[in-house]
Amino acid sequence: MTNNIQEQQLFDAACSGRLDNDSHQALQTLLRTSPGARQRYLDYTALHADLFAAVRTARVHVRLAQLIEESSPAGPKHLAPPAARAGLGRTGLGRTGLGSTGLGSTLGRRMLAFAGVVLATAAGLLVALGPDLGGPATEPAGADLVADQDFKEPSRVAPTEALERESQDTLLDDDARWLELVARVSRVEGVQWSDDGRSYAVEDLLSAGDAIRLTDGLVEIEFRQGAVVVLEGPAHLVANDANAALLLQGKLAAVAPPWATGFRIDTPGVDVIDHGTKFAVNVSGALDETQVNVVVTEGEVELVADEQAEGGRRLRAGEGIQSTKNDVQDGDDAEARQLTNHLPSRPGLKNAVVVADRWQDWKPGVANQPNREGNWRYYTNGSVSFGDTKGYEELVWNEADNCYLPGNMEEKPWLNHYVRVHREGGHPGKGRDQVKDKIDRYSITGFVVPEEGKYRIEAGWLERRWARRWDRDAELDVAIHVNDGPILMRKFCNRDCYVPFRQPLGKLAAGDTIYVGVGPNGADHNDRFRWGFFIVRETTPAGEASIESQRDIALSD
Fold first, then answer.
1. Do 329 and 371 have their domain in common?
2. Which residues, 6+ apart, have CB-to-CB distance to 132 below 8 Å?
3. Selection from 243-247, 372-376, 398-402 with the highest mean pLDDT
4. Cβ pair 321, 301 in contact under 8 A
5. How far is it, in rounded angstroms, from Cα 49 to Cα 4?
6. What is the count of structural domains for the chain?
7. 298 within a domain of the structure (yes/no)
8. Is 147:435 a contact under the CB 8 Å cutoff?
């Protein structure tokens, strides 16, 4: 098998959601080591998404036209087609929108005719391109993901909300409702947004593939895994995933805590991989004459570049390079270095070591046994309230379902229905409004502390599947306690479908257990979730309020 064929097969599997673990690792390695392959991958996924965008838009128009034809003459005459909400977030195309269109019965019939032409054309293109793209022209994974919900103020919904949501529901299948949220905007200062881009506000969320374009000002972005970036306009940045971004233009400064080691900034020239550091990057010039400057103020970074002898070089604090298409030289960039002064002053970003990673540490167990190697344990709270560990019941490994389930499922199906823990997340059980004893059943992950020290949870995130119309006001909750102590934190994941969390835990002894649970908050409607978090131990004083005082604040909230 040639490298080109293997590459195309990996790209096709990624777009169609057919990557197994080995293929996923192979694709990650390829994209991390070859900027050329990354560019081909971006081109491939963009083409894949563009073709299906035409199909998706046509489907939305068809459904809207059908709904309008079925409605009364007094029904709504002007609707904002939700095509912009169709799942293009992964390639940054999901924010374009189509504007408001006057829709009457006559125009509805015209739209049906137009949609037929678009569908036929797009289908023909897909059939023609399918073999050349290394596999069948299947719909890209996540193509139905909603990407343009107003996360902060969901009450600001057009009067035609029900009609739009019905149309959305026809496009979304049960396995394509994850939003792939990877970052949030944490600060905006004096920003002028680009005319051809979206404007953002503090706390807005970014999906994989979303772009930030500004002509002036500063934007601070916190990635899901913990890295913080400050972008200075004019600039163009694309959020790749929870620990990586692509800088196409402008200046960027970044700081990565220990739990975000490996944070990556790709550019049209060299790519920068963090190794516990604070650094800045400046991309300037035309696309075919791009210059990339990199400077390091703390720690070190690794530079990776195709066809350059400097690929893989390490830069340490005080060092810098200036890179062009054909050359990499030592150099400095005073303006980029100055930008690092705008990074947040958070001692907690540097004063800890990672002890555990819920996502990466995952291991299957022994069939029908609760015990397994390592410090992680999985529970449900059975007939007691969350926080009463004396009644916690440890889950057992179920080989067939590839997850941990209650061991007494057959004895008490009403009690344990739905409870599970798997690689990506899990599902809580019945809620207090659905059972006689009025107790929420939690999916609980426990971690046994290996040594004494001050601990905290960092870079926690909980993502709920996109809500259907009838359960969009239902909520999940995530809560934390240590041993039999009080609940230290409780947050709710509602129609936004995403909530970040972190929590100081105080001084713990070896053998103490940290419990993090996800509950149904009353009823288990659409409660499948994905999540992750890090457990870290402090190495030096945080320089802020003491951990104990932070716990007092958390309890008072």
1. no
2. none
3. 243-247
4. no
5. 21
6. 3
7. yes
8. no
Helices (H), 71-144: 105-129
Residue the block writes with tokens 């026809």: 170
Which residue shows structure tokens 């777009």? 15
- 408: containing domain: 354-556
Structure tokens at 438: 């009025």
- End-to-end CA separation in angstroms for the chain: 60
Any bridge partners for residue 219, and if so which? 188, 231
- Cβ atoms of 462 and 501 within 8 Å: the answer is yes
Residue 398 Cα distances to 164, 186, 369, angstroms: 40, 41, 9
In this predicted model, what pLDDT tens digit does every residue of 334-361 receive, in sequence order? 999 999 999 988 777 778 999 999 999 9
Whole-angstrom distance, CA of residue 421 vs CA of residue 358: 12
Q: Does residue 496 share a domain with residue 442? A: yes
CA distances from 381 to 439, 463, 479, 521, 522 (A): 9, 22, 13, 14, 15
Nearest to 361 by CA among 224, 535, 500: 535
Q: Could you tell me how many residues make up the chain? A: 557
Neighbours of 377 (CB within 10 A): 20
Predicted confidence at residue 277, as pLDDT, reads 87
Is 48 within 8 Å of 68 (Cβ atoms)?
no
Residue 37 host element (H or E): helix 35-70
What are residue 222's phi and psi, to 5 degrees?
-110, 120
Is the CB of residue 363 less than 8 Å from the CB of residue 373? yes
Q: How do 264-266 and 205-207 pair as beta strands?
A: unpaired
Distance CA 364, CA 378 (A): 11
Pick from 301, 324, 344: which residue ends a domain?
A: 344
517: helix, strand or coil: strand
DSSP line for 148-165: ---SS-TT---TTHHHHH
Q: Nearest Cα to 102, choosing from 140, 68, 144, 136?
A: 68
10 Å Cβ neighbour count for 358? Answer: 18
List Cβ<8 Å contacts ≥24 apart for 314-318. 314/275, 315/279, 317/277
In angstroms, rounded to a whole number, what is the distance separating the alpha carbons of residues 438 and 431?
Answer: 7
DSSP string, 334-378: HHHHHHGGGS---GGGTSEEEEEETTTT-----BT-S--SSSEEE
Q: Region 396-401: what's the mean pLDDT?
A: 90
Among 171, 197, 212, the domain boundary falls at 171
Which residues sit opposite 425 in a β-bridge? 530
Conformational region of residue 423, where left means phi above 0, alpha means psi within -120 to 50, and beta covers everything else: alpha
pLDDT by residue (tens digit) across 320-333? Answer: 999 887 788 899 99
Please give the helix or strand (H or E) that residue 550 lies within, else none: helix 547-556
